[in-house]
Amino acid sequence: MKSDMPPRTRGGYTSTAPRRRPTGSERRRRVQLREVEPEYPRHDRDETEEVLEGAPGGPIDRCILRSFHKHVAANIWLGEDRAPLKLVNHGAKLQLWELDVERSRIYETVQRSGLAPLISCSHRVASRPMLSAFCERWQPETTTFHLPFGEMTITLDDVASILHIPITGSMISFSQPLRVDDANALLVELLGTTDVEASRETEQCRSPSVRLQWLRENFSTITDVSSDDDIDFATRAFLLHLVGCTLFADKSATSVGVVYLELFRDLSMVGSYAWGAACLAFMYRQTTATRFEVRQLGGYLTLLQAWIYEHFPEMFSSSDMAYIESRPRALRWRPHVIPDSLQSLRERLDRLQISDVCWEPYVDHRAEHPFPDIAWFSGCIKCGLVVEPYHPERVLRQFGHIQTIPPRPFAPPRPDRSILLDQYWERWTDHVLIDHSRGRRCHYSGESVAEYMAWYDRISHRIVQPPHLRSGFTTDARSSLPSHTASTSDSRNARALRLLRHVISGGRQQSGDYFWGALNEVHSILAGSDETSASHSTPSPAPASHSTPSPATRPFFCPPTFVYPPPASVDPPPATVDPHPSSPVAPPAPAAGPTASTTVYVRSKRKKKT
Residue 314 has what pLDDT? Predict the structure, then answer.
């Protein structure tokens, strides 16, 4: 018996109209749309979504930083501190495998690949407290550093300027994780090892990886007089060793994945990959050492450290006077270990202001290395199975534009569903920020719209070190103290070092009066008398032989001060204020004549003389 109910469609709805089959052109249009436009879901909040409660110190609204309860900053506010991260840095290992004139054929292939700058620009020293302090401000949802004044991140422009490696080309993609058996087969095919040697090495690594030392021991002795096959094997081994020490340094600290060896199968195609984009995606994933239980930081630390030097030159950097702009910007800096503790650096970052940042550090570098338009790409970048969102709209100030309130961040697709990202990346010109999204150019560095900071204060965690856990006293107590007691020894040392760096960067053409004035001011800073002298004594004019440096030669960060002649006598130091007013010390008792012990000591001394 035929039912009177209308027919039921596949979506669950009923309709009396007969179902029409789609035409061939409609089917092709649907398939083309699905292939060309992969959708990036955003972290949008629907009406039925549970509203997450705020965290101490922020964020008040956790609609964006949804996993902040697992962040190390949340534990710090609860009183659970974490030691500086252990760093994985292979800068010194690159010097153990040099490509001299006897290996010129290998070097020519490496140079064509676009990876040759990595050999010379890798830093051998990395600062644990500095890198750890910045990693504590990384938020995985936005892939940006959350600082007191807004967000900053490492962009594709930073990668291209700092490392001089290609950021355009094919994405580095792997369909699935590499198994140990497949890794052994790749070692036999592409490196010419035997099955026994390949199996022994992967068994020792307990993963589809090989040790960096094993690559050096087996392939570093091959020269240009060897056979063509041996030279190809050694070239692939060197490239695998190079990316394992730099771009894709993982937390094993001793090995590199064999999966990257597939990229060097055809040595003529090595230069066609977007190595910079893959390095940035890998660095984004490694920088998520924000979980409290994580104790190690991998990735290319030279990129992260040079980025900090570029954007915060007055706080951490030490420049190389012999640098020229045609070389990678990583070579502009002399890496050194920051003497401050992790807690001290947290407090320094908490006090950062917009004026402390160099928003566009590559202005002088544009003549040799123009701005790449692909840096405006908005979407997802990948390195194999690692997929990370890239948000230039969240850091417009780093491109010289006024920062507006950005849209919600992308939720990257799962690796097994990201095969269409390669096509999306190949047509990157269709997916850059349009002029309307970029906004207007800044009138001054670090400019933002009026409502940005109110929005940012609500969704971000701006202060990492809680006020009740700072070094000895709170912000109110610090502001009530005189300036010579409020500045700690760390800040005095930092001020003196900044002054000396600017004096050294000025070269030998400066006058002797300028050097005398700078040394006198460094002495005053280290002695703690630079502010004290100005408040306790009347400044006298400098003698003619020691004139005050002119404003043109004075460092721009150094406030105008009087230059004093060398003191003839040392005055007693002024009374200082206790930097810890919460624990007062009882005042000394008034002097009431000599005590009993003093009297006995004097009498016994007199008896010895008689």
Answer: 82
